[in-house]
Amino acid sequence: MTTPPGFTLVQLRYFLVAAEHGSMTEASAQLHIAQSAVSAAVTGLERDLQVQLFIRRRGRGLTLTPAGERLRQQARDLLARAREMEREARGDGPALSGPVSVGCFVTLAPYYLPRLFSECTRRHPGIEIDVVEAEADQLVEALTAGRIDFALTYDLGLSTEPEVHSETIARAPAYVIVAADHPLAGRDSVSLAELAAEPLVLLDLPHSRDYFRALVTATGTAPDVRYRTRSYETVRSMVASGLGYSVLNQRPTIRSTYGGGELAELELRDAGRPLEVRIASVDGVAQSARARAVMDVLRDVADGG
């Protein structure tokens, strides 16, 4: 590990102000500190660097030595870079820039990320968004480990995480999908009891599976889980092939599937509570300005703006 320098940025700043004014007295007035503090900082800097930076003449102020002249330019560059580092860390420069790491629940990604990227590129072209797509528990773990700034996820499982703060930005009611040639396909709505004898194609993700099963069992029937898959689109394709029905929350704008089949969507009369789409972050951790800006864009995207 590299040994840190013996001097400080404060010493460099005091030295630069003294060099600009050619006087410890004027430097102290500019900095609003005691003259002794400026003098002590400069003397300490000379000691740490083992060079003389000023020629001090009584009544004639300060004159930079050749070593002091060289240090003045180097100090200006170093302090400018330090200010850039500070702005980068906070993400609040003249134009927001730098990385933001966003976690996204896997089934929400196709619906939110394209619009998020597009709108962020338009509003904040200097921000670089890095996305981690994962399941709910993985997102919580990434949050608490500091690998992502915030997560876009459902409320599933968040209530048991005391370290996580979340904000609801949208609600997604459950609905039923059946094949386009299913006997109920022409209906506007259906109850789960009417589907009790049919196979359920289950989106088999942690928390999600429990949510969907609970919807069915709340009607007093036991779901016949015949098929399971962790892929949202595979669920749709299997249902379109006539293998059963499924219950989902996010709605694609098209009824066709990757497999070429067609679906019918039915409102669910006994849907229970909708899932809440939330922005989750670690409680008590201040977000950078650029992360807050991406959150604002995400809120607008969820609101349809």
Provide the fold topology:
Layout: H1 9-21, H2 24-31, H3 35-49, E1 54-57, E2 61-64, H4 66-90, E3 98-105, H5 109-123, E4 127-134, H6 136-144, E5 150-154, E6 164-172, E7 175-179, E8 189-190, E9 199-203, H7 208-217, E10 224-229, H8 232-240, E11 246-248, E12 263-268, E13 275-282, H9 289-302
Parallel strand pairs: 3-4, 3-5, 8-12, 9-10
Antiparallel strand pairs: 1-2, 5-13, 6-13, 7-11, 7-12
Helix pairs in contact: 1-2, 1-3, 1-4, 2-3, 5-9
Question: Could you describe the 3D structure shown?
Answer:
This protein has 305 residues and is an alpha/beta fold. It is 39% helix and 24% strand. It has helices at residues 9-21, 24-31, 35-49, 66-90, 109-123, 136-144, 208-217, 232-240, 289-302; strands at residues 54-57, 61-64, 98-105, 127-134, 150-154, 164-172, 175-179, 189-190, 199-203, 224-229, 246-248, 263-268, 275-282. A five-stranded mixed sheet has the order 4-3-5-13-6, with helices on both faces. Strands 8-12-7-11 form a four-stranded mixed sheet. A two-stranded antiparallel ribbon has the order 1-2. Helix 7 links the parallel strand 9 (199-203) and strand 10 (224-229). It starts with 8 loop residues before the first helix and ends with a helix.
